[in-house]
Amino acid sequence: MTAVVKALRVKRPRVDPDYLLRLFVSGFTARSQRAIENLQNICERYLAGRYRIEVVDLHQSPGLARDEQIIATPTLLKVRPFPPQRVIGDLSQVDKVLHGLDIK
Amino acid sequence: MKILTPAATPATAARAKKSPPARAFRSLRVRLDEAEQTLAAIRTGEIDALVVGGPAGERVFTLEGAERGYRVLMEAMSEGVATLSEQGLISYCNARFAAIVGVPLEQTIGNPISRLVTAADRERFQALIAAGTIGRSEDEFWLQAPGVGAPALVRLAVVSLVMDGAQTHCLVMTDLTEQRRQSATIAAERARMQTRLLLADRMSSLGTLAAGVAHEINNPLAYALTSLELMTKRLTELAVPSRPMGCESTEWLRRQLDRAHEGAERVRLIVRGLKAFSRADDETMEVIDPRRALDTSIALVLNEVRHRAQLVKDYDTLPAVWANEARLAQVFLNLLVNATQAIPAGAATHNEIRVSGRADAEGRAVIEVRDTGCGIEADHLGLIFDPFFTTKPQNVGTGLGLALCHAVIGSLDGQITVESKPGEGSVFRVVLPGVKGAAVPLPVPPSVAPAAVNPRGRLLFIDDERDTCEVVEEALASIHTVVATTDARQALQLLAAGQHFDVILCDIRMPEMTGVDFLSRLEIDNPAQASRVVLMSGGYVCRPEDPPIVRSRKLLEKPFTIDQVSSLMREAMQREPLAAG
Questions:
Q1: What are B380-429's pLDDT values in tens digits?
Q2: Do the chains contact at A29 and B66, CB–CB below 8 Å?
Q3: Residue B43: which of A12, A61, A89, A1 has the closest Cα?
Q4: Between chains, do A88 and B4 touch, taking CB under 8 Å as contact?
Q5: Which of its termini does chain B have fewer beta carbons within 10 Å around, N or C?
Q6: Which of B1, B47, B50 sits opposite A93 (nearest CB)?
Q7: Which ipTM was obtained for this model?
Q8: A25: CB partners within 8 A, 6+ apart
Q9: Within a 10 A sphere around the Cβ of A54, how many other Cβ atoms?
Q10: Which helix (H) or strand (E) holds B290?
Q11: Any idea of the CA torsion for B224, B227, B229, B235, to the nearest 10 degrees?
């Protein structure tokens, strides 16, 4: 229970990446796993080298839910760039995710 | 899928900066959007968990899917897991938990955990549970279910939580029995190694002891052998055909003497063998006759072999090799002992140990020890040269013998190999590089020249054993002038007074002045005579601190024969006759 944030650092740039994306899940449900996979695919395709994904399991760190105003999982929170934005669900609809993340 | 997004275009952002009411409006719009999206997602079931805040902090309510995965994980764990109700009933446990305590799963769930805890441990167990309500607590217990043979040693970790208003204790159980058993195995292995090391240590102490004993035996043995030799000679002189009356009793006496001589000779071989096996023997390498090493080894095991097998010696044509005789004899002894131990006692006529030796086409010495014993399992063949590998009962084998052989032969650029068939016997083959064109120093051949033709020489004999002095004097008085003394200082005085000798035989170990001191002194006073000194030793070990003149000098090994002394005299007199006067 010590790991508060599990960071999936796919490609770690030397400087802080443009996009910091935090995905909130609860345990290893099928929906959570789908959300993680979908997010990875989208980022690799549209944000290669410019992003970092952090996956937070609310079972392990429920306190983070309050800090980020998370009500349900899976929820994707775009922490950077400003402004923060959220997408709820398993992230299977790519165009909606891109729209939510402000990616054209 | 809902997108929670305000109209975040640069244009609207720029407008928002300019107009505070527009910015507030936009913010409200975003929050409303988010709320709508979330509600829609919940309504359409696109989420799998809800986060509910409460006085005890945030709690995550999983809606679907997660439990099954956790259940699989729980059952796959090598830890035992159980939940206890407030009254201490097991409300859930995984199969591993039941397996550790040795009770069928269906007889575990629903039963009080107290069934598994011994009466003596109850209080400690209650304390563990109580501590679990504050934080994680851990302790070790012996758990034993009724009717289960062996108790299980486990480490229990307890965390308590309130589920639906009821206190629940979660137990994680680690089986320590297996760990215990493994460390017990390791401890047993360590004890076994220690025993072996002790044994090896004892063997090396025995070696040192043997060297000491050999030295002590050699002195009395020297004059016993010499006396026997003298008696035999005198008998020969008495038994002249002109005196037929004494013939019969002379023959009888001769037989007794021969037997005594044979016995003493065997003692000499055994003592030499003992010395060879103590590490005290010097480690010098030289050209040696491997047959001598074989003879020594065989003399040591002959008695043991007699009850088990016939020993056949067939090694007349072995070439000389470069080795240390003691080490080589040790190798042969180990092989012979193994061969002997492979053959059970009682069927000596049906079993054979054959020691054979020959030169191969490349001039190498090939020595084989072949037995008709029990043979070696194919699985063991690859292991037998490993240190501490032994199939012999404890206290019989150290597991070092063949390892030592391998090391010794390897150090001589040789090879040791084995062939074996279980039930038929084994052959150990040692191959050593032969030494070409080297003369093998063989034991001094017995002198047959009649005493009368020898010119009379002068011998100075120095030995602290009076008996040895007397025997030598007596034996050689008819041929040479023998001056014997038990004190090296007296010998120095004689030499200082102008006496000179063809050979000066001097014992190394003497109480007053040692042979080394004597030689060093004479080297200064009278180098010409010093060159005629031959040192005698009954097991002397050259030490590095000895002067070079000692280390380079040839030793006459005790016990010696009168013939050896005669040869030394003859050689010296031929090589460098004393100046007249």
A1: 887 888 766 777 765 556 666 787 788 788 878 899 999 999 888 999 99
A2: yes
A3: A89
A4: yes
A5: C
A6: B1
A7: 0.72
A8: A32, A35, A36, A55, A56, A57, A58, A73, A74
A9: 17
A10: helix B290-306
A11: -140
